[in-house]
Design brief:
With about 240 residues, the chain is of the alpha+beta class. It has eight helices and six strands, in the order H-H-H-H-E-E-E-E-H-E-E-H-H-H.
Length: about 240
């Protein structure tokens, strides 16, 4: 039994924990650095590094003063519209939202921060209507369930943060595929996800045991298995 617990969760941490509790412990409690990854054949940067670069470029364009990079040209009209709304004070970028265990807003770095949600763009169209936008690099196929859950958490956090909101649109901009996925939630629809995320967050932050869950899917990309640091000898 571990003497420590994972104190706070985010969606990505939740995915790690639910795939393999030992991996979550090694990453978020023991804080074991991940080994350097070799570049895939024919690639000049890792997918995560590329995603961060493109996200940063999108944010800089919306703030103004730079051109849109080629990787975002498929969404040129949408980014220009977002920049225009930003100039009119309707958009907040890279929002770092944190809540305590009662889901009350706290500062990102607050010691009581229990859950953290980071949004690419939050657009306030009116007092009662908002749009949450998440830029997605890489593939959509195979990630539909994970991305849908992310949107559910984003809209839930927005409804809780702004009690006057009645409707929220969530948009996923798949920049590599010229694909915009859109979902709309009313407050009553959105709040139905509260119990699910609250229970999952409690399970993660109250866990005292972190058994491994070896399987081909979870172990394939795990940095701590036999092909990585070796801190887990149960990997397959």
């Amino acid at each position: 039994m571990s003497n420590e617990r994972i104190k706070a969760w985010s969606y990505s941490r939740l995915v790690d924990f639910e795939q393999c509790k030992l991996r979550a412990k090694l990453k978020y409690i023991d804080r074991i650095p991940e080994p350097a990854r070799p570049l895939p054949p024919g690639k000049t940067e890792h997918a995560n590094d590329r995603g961060t670069r493109i996200h940063d470029a999108g944010e800089r364009f919306v703030r103004g003063g730079v051109e849109l990079i080629p990787e975002l040209k498929a969404f040129e009209a949408e980014f220009h519209d977002l920049r225009n709304k930003y100039e009119h004070g309707m958009v907040s970028l890279e929002g770092e939202w944190a809540v305590n265990k009662d889901w009350e807003p706290v500062a990102w770095g607050d010691r009581d921060a229990w859950a953290r949600i980071k949004l690419d763009a939050f657009v306030r169209l009116s007092k009662t209507h908002a749009v949450v936008i998440d830029y997605k690099t890489g593939k959509k196929f195979g990630n539909e369930i994970k991305h849908a859950e992310q949107t559910q958490l984003y809209q839930l956090a927005a409804f809780l943060r702004y009690p006057e909101l009645e409707t929220i649109d969530v948009e996923l901009w798949y920049t590599d595929q010229d694909d915009l996925t859109h979902m709309k939630y009313t407050r009553s629809q959105g709040m139905r996800f509260f119990q699910n995320f609250n229970q999952r967050g409690i399970a993660m932050t109250s866990a005292e045991e972190f058994p491994p869950s070896p399987n081909v899917f979870a172990c394939k990309w795990c940095p701590y298995g036999p092909r990585g640091t070796g801190d887990c000898d149960k990997g397959v």
